[in-house]
Amino acid sequence: VYRLQIDVSAALANPLVNPEFLENVTSFIHKVVKNYAFRYVDYLWTQRYGISCNSKSIKGMVSFEGDEIIIDVLPLIEVQDWKPTVYLNLGYAIMLATLRYSGKEHKEENIHLAAMKTWNRYLSFEESAEKQSVRELYSLYYCTEEEQCCGLLECMIGQKSPELIDDFIMLIGYSSKETFLERFNVLKESRYEKRTGVHFEQVLGTVRNMNTSLMRNNINYSKLIEVLRNDNIDHLQLTEFLRTGRLGDRHVVDVSEWLLLRTLLYDVINAPKVFRNDYKMLLKVLTKVNKSLIVYIWTLGINDDPRYEMVSSYIAKLMNDIFVFNRVKIYEIVADPVECLEAEAVTGYLLNWAALQPEERRSIVKEIVSILPRNWVEHLSVQTPDDVDELIRVLTVRGSGIIGFYLHQAYRWGSTNDPLTARIRSNFAALLKHAQGAILPSKRVMGGAMLLLLLAQIISDERDGFAGNITITEEERNAVRDLIKQCIGWGQMHFVIMIAGIAAGYMGSIDGWILQQFDSLLGRYDAGDRVVLRSVVQFDVDNLIERALISFKDGEEKALLNKIQCLRFGVDPVVSDQANKFLRAMASRCGISSPEAALKQRNIRELVLSSVQHLKAQALSMRNGRGWTRQNNRMKVDKRQ
After folding, report:
1. Exposure string over 368-397, b if 16+ CB within 10 A, otherwise e
2. Are strands 246-247 and 250-251 parallel, antiparallel or unpaired?
3. Per-residue H/E/C for 52-109
4. Beta strands 5-7; 48-52: pairing state
5. By C-alpha distance, which of 629, 616, 618, 624 is closest to 641?
6. What is the pLDDT of residues 88-144, one digit of tens each?
7. pTM of the model
8. Tell me, what DSSP letter sits at residue 131?
């Protein structure tokens, strides 16, 4: 347990300092340090802090005396809104202390990195309130953005240092340019001719390396990063943390302070970037963060929390300003299409939501979210047949991705008695109508692609005798096939291809149509550039063979063998390799002593029929509504109660 040391004796000795004011400043410093310690490193708890009252000058208001951080409060007396200024200056000093603690000896580069982070904090301030109060304290009236930056840095370092400040301004401009010509044009504006491109490249390289090292330390020591990557902390607990600032019985962040809540939101949304070299972890963290943000916004809105408008607008701003992840690239590297679906559902929804006007977001919360089942709003899960009806009743183009995914997650493919699945099937016509309205390539609207997963599963269940409560016409089948084909042809970089490819595997039997879709997917796979599309085909092959085996009927033996042999020998090596891999796994489950030898035989009748018997025996134990789910391409029984 850490106890923050803040020495207030020097301030108490000055009669100008009101005890209540001093208590407020001390309390705020404690909150800020606690916030930074959670974000970066526990060392900040043992850092010594002091409050003085010596100089009216705002320059050097926060300074170092040896290893102690000193905050001079004299410039703040009689100032109504002093918190933004203290937050900026103290944050700058804390960042310098953190860099020194981590062993960074580059004095000027430390200042540059700390100043960059502080300047970004300032830019995130509200124009009419916090920025205005800072400008008034710093006397930065009617200044350009560059002049504000110079003034802030000069006040933070506490001295005139034109070279250092000019270097910082140049560094910001230089680092924002990508091409040599753009950077050369920035250099021409420098007031110091001795500062060459080589100099700025060296400084920029050092600063970036320091920031990378800081991020690496975050991964190892930051409590925030630990929360985000911890499998035992789900999106509900993260939502509760955003709402209360508490983790279990620990009070970590004072979310009643808007400055600190906003910093927490910024850090949570920005934190997945630290996993840029671990894409599987990045995908997991990104999904958790975005699920928690959705639930957080929804619950603030429906509970009429006074923070809703501020939080809603700020999260929308951050999603538009700092969300720079290339989702398609992440999906390609992770290459597990099932893991990517939920990430796409929640991320796509949040980005679409952030693009709306405030009144549109308010309308969604009040007119749609507020009337939905509470378990959906809080858990993002479909738990009862009534949930199904309510979700489909309010389904919109914008909501089709997220609602479609969680209905798909609730659906039990191949089940005969599951009430949720039966209710979803009974809404087939409504789902098809919504999908047709939410897949409009000419308008770049493709949210309905997620609904194709459901439609495809329902069609194959009806065809194979698992869905007794519906009848699907040939016209409806063709409509879904056309939508899938349309989405597979959408565009090489678009996630819609991935979703439509999975839907094709759920819907298809082993026939010419599905082989055509494989040709399209593998053509776009392009010998390795689109890895996730190869994974989609492999996932589909598993589903197709499994469905062919479990729906086998007496008298269809020859047709079944021909279909499986077609996958093994008559198509692309990606397909045939995966077919053999699946059959090899089935042979092991069936107790066949030498799976490899069995697969080398041209006639695999014994293996196929043994697999049929094995799967059907398992199916008998699932007549209570439990269906098949697949995780990491391994079959398992779903035991949802």
Report:
1. bbeebbeebbebbebeebebbebbbeebeb
2. antiparallel
3. ECCCCCCCCCEEEECCEEEEECHHHCCCCCCHHHHHHHHHHHHHHHHHHHCCCCCHHH
4. parallel
5. 624
6. 999 999 999 888 877 666 688 889 899 999 998 898 888 888 999 999 998 888 888
7. 0.87
8. I
